[in-house]
Structures are given as C-alpha cells and as structure tokens.
Predict the 3D structure of the following.
Amino acid sequence: MIRIEPRNTNSAIFSYGVPILSALVALILASIPLWFAGAPVLVSYVEMAKGVFGSKFAFSEMLTRATPLMFTGLAAALAFRAKLWNIGAEGQLYLGAMAAVAVGTGVLEAPAFILVPIIILFGCAAGSVGMVVPAFLKTRYGADEVVTTLLLNFIILIFLQYMLEGPLKDPMGLGWPQSSPILDQGMLPPLMERMRVHSGLLIAVACALIAQFMLVRSVWGFKLRAVGENVFAARHAGIKVNRTILGAAIASGALAGMAGVSEVAGLKGYLTSDLSPGFGYAGIIVAMLAGLSPIGVVISALFIASVFVGADSMSRAMGVSSYLADLVVSTSLLCVLIGGFFARFKLVKTSVKGQN
Amino acid sequence: MKSGEAVLELDNLTISGSSKRESISNVNLIVKKHEILGIAGISGNGQTVLANAISGLLKPSSGKIKLESEILISNDPSNIIQAGVGRIPEDRHKDGIVGQMTVAENMILEDLSNKRIQSRGLLNREAIIQHCEDLSVKYDVRGPGANASARLLSGGNIQKLILARVFEAAPKLILANQPTRGLDMGAAADVANRLLEARQRGSGVILISEDLDEILSLSDRIMVIYDGELKAVETHDRETIGLMMAGEAA
C-alpha cells in the first residue's frame, strides 16, 4: 500500500528545484506532439524562446500579457488562502472594467493625477462588490461560493453585453457593441516608447508586495491564514470568521476588478465583451502554481505569460497548428502542478502487515 | 482548601440540538473559586454541547451563563475569552491548534489584540518568537522550535502548547474538556498538576472527563451527566458514580 504524507521539511531544493524540473519535463513531453506535427523540436523551442526574449518588443508583449494574470492570480491567491473559493475573477474583472469605463469616458473631466486614481478606485470597488455578494451569501446562508461566483460570471457577461448595447455604447462606434474610449488623461501611462506594456504592471507588482507583507506581517493576514488553515480552531480562539472571510472577499474582488481596469485603461482604451480571454480563470492556475504565495504569483504569471506568448509565436513561425501552443501551455501547467504536489507531499510505502 | 464565591453559574441552561447527543436540558451548576468541579459521564451524553456553550461556540436555547454574576453574551468566543474563561478543547487537533501555522503563531492565537505582540495591526515578530520561547521553557513544550509548523508537535506537546496559552492568560474559569485523553503518562500528569495549580491560584475549574480515576483524584465536587441531564453526587464513591454514568438511578 502507498500512503500520501505531507513533507516535514520545506527545503530550498524542493521549493525551487521542483518547479524548474517540472517545466523541463513539460517541454520534453510537449516535444512529442511537436515531433508528430512535423516540426523540428529544437528549432521550435528556440523559436519559442525568441518569441519571449528575442527582442525588446517580444519581451514587452510577454510583460503585457503577464499584467492581468498577476492581478487575477493575486485575487485567487488571497481568497484561496482564506479557503474562499473565488472562481468569479472573470466576472469581477468585467465589473472593474465597466466601472472604469463608466467614470473614465467623459463623465468626469479631471487631470490625470485625479482621474486615474478615481478610475482605479471605482474599478476596484466594483470588483469588490462582485465578490462581497457571494461571500455574504456564504457567511449568512451557507451558499457554496464555488457555485455562486462561477454562475455570476455568466450573469455579469450578459449584463456587460446589455451595457455595451445600451448605456455604455459608444455613439460614435458605428454600431459596434463597444464602449466609448477612455479619456487620454484617464489612461495608465505606458512604460516604454511605442510598446504596449503599461504601468498596470508596476501596480500589479506593488499589489503583490503589499499582499505578501499583509499576509505575513499583519494581524489581518494572520487571521486570514488562521481561518483558511483551520476554521474551527480560529473560531474557537475568538477570531471573527465571517468578518475575516468578508475582508478576504473585498481584497480579492478589488484585485480582480483591478485586472479589468488595467486591461481597459492600460491596454485597450475601450471596453468590448472580449476584453479578457479567460484571465479570471487563468488566474486560478497562476495562484495554484505559485502555491498561493503573492510573490510567487508574480513569478508564475511571468512563466505562464511566457509560455502563452512564446508558444503562440512558435506556432506562427513553424507553421504548425496554433492548438499546439495550447497543448504546450497545458502540459506545462499539468507538470508544474504535479511537481508541486510532490514538493509538498511524499509517498510512503506501508507494508500490508502494518495495517493491523 | 476553602472555596470562595461563585465564578461560573449556569442557570437552567437548555440546548435543543438536532439529536439527543447534542442536547442538554435544564442544567444548573455553580463553580466556585479554588474549586475543581468534575463532570463525569460517558461521551455522547451532552458534554460537547455543554462545553461549546461555555466556550461561546453555541447559543443556548434558553437559560443563562453567568461569570462572576455577570451574564455572558454567548455565541462569541472572543467575548468569553475577554471575560476570563480559558478553554482546553476536547479535540485539540481540530479546535486547539492551526496545524499549518507555526508554534509561535499558535501561542498567540487567542491573544491577537495584545499590544505586546502587535501595534497598529502589524505583528511584532521578535516579540512573538520571544514569547513562544519563554512559554516553551515554562510549560515544557518540546518540538522542532518556534518557527516549525504546530502539526509537527506530538499530542502531548500540542496539549502543553494549549495549556501555555490558557494559563498565561490567568483565567478566572478554566474549562478542561477531556484534557488527558490520548496523552502519555507524563503529559497527563502535567495537565493534572496545572489544573491543581490553577485551583490553588484561585481559578474555578470545570473538568469534563470520561476517566473516572481522573475525576475522583482531582475533583472537589462531582456531578454526573447522563442523557443531557446533570446531577450532583454527594459522595466520591466509585461504584455510585459509575452506576449513575450508566444511567442507573443511585
């Protein structure tokens, strides 16, 4: 018989070595379908690396892709640390984006140093509301937040389509279902000349640092971790469980809303219903890869964005199906997740005799 | 030793749970200073809900819980802790510690508003480690150190950690629910000594246990809980108490 036990030691070899090894295994596994598709494997991987590190533009594109993943990854990580399963980052992202568009397209005429913070504030608040509702239903009535947050995504998406056909529709948009553009002074400033990477990236990294600090060093984070790790002991010790869960929900929703603000006010400039190709869901994977550590989220968002952008550009360069890119991405994720499992747990062989 | 005024008073406490195991009816009891009140009974006769009500985890259906003649607002453990009740939970792994957090963090679990370990919402890491090391020596908590996960401690050391947390707060009342169950002899003796010390210092102690030897050797007064009802016993006679625990009228 085999038993699964948590590892007692968290050695550096395991916490850094295993993810790197897993990524290598993923690349080896992904070379099989590449080979079947008739692409020379080594050249393909060189193309993939070039797609990320080959030029300043390629690298900046990777950073642009990583930015929303950092926000949604942080949203998932914070909520999951409190065992609050927020699967609704996708919807909260759109709520944030809608709020940003609602205040940023001309309702308020203000200079950048006022308008940008207002847009961020409204976007975060809208995301928070999107998460506080399911969290309240959970704490008050015991409604399963996996179900409520997931289903809210679809409701919000339909609401978004209504808004883009109605109140938020751009009158100058030639009938397309899209919002008016955000005012120039409402946009997050770009980081590099003629590149798409914008200062949302800096905000994301700052959020990660703050989240890490709060989790480890603040009483708020202490309570959040205690509730997440053992809600019974936390309640017994007098920690206010519902209040803690609502706090985690507010922070998580705000971060997801910020992903929407960053995409719409940092990158696109206006809102359409295909703003996010599933950033909210990908954030869950980013957070799991990072072991729910905020600093880890930054690294895993960079990794996932690299695989996405690199595999994409590889499939274009090699003329193989773009589904191969998806395959490379999913193999990497599976390998890193399985690797993470073995980094945290060990298999112990137990003799049959030992079972009484 | 002479016992003093009442610390805890339960006045017609009734809890109607979903099953008989989770119900008690019209429980009346008084615990005085310098006194250990033993509640003997076979598990499943209402001890858990009784303990939960005193711990603030459960709202009684009717009746009052008074601590030093002030009515406790129950259903909130933090009020209960503030009022000066120390609790040694029945299931120490589930209710006593957060296994994934460190030994030092578990030491301060009930004391997060203390200015010594935090200021303006930020934890003082050095003070927390120091606090843990001091208490580990004082209460003989042995393990891989203050920064190790609490789940790595043995059962006896987990219980000592909980004792350290409870007794350092100098509680007026101590609720010890099955405090030596599953412990080795050394740790069990340690728990008993701590309870006797607390009694010496003036705390009132409620000792809920299935272990008749433990009840007989530590308690000043004994009550028996059977089928959700609590009855006083005038003697320390093993046979009488044993029969009452089995539900035979004595």
DSSP finds 13 helices and two strands in chain A.
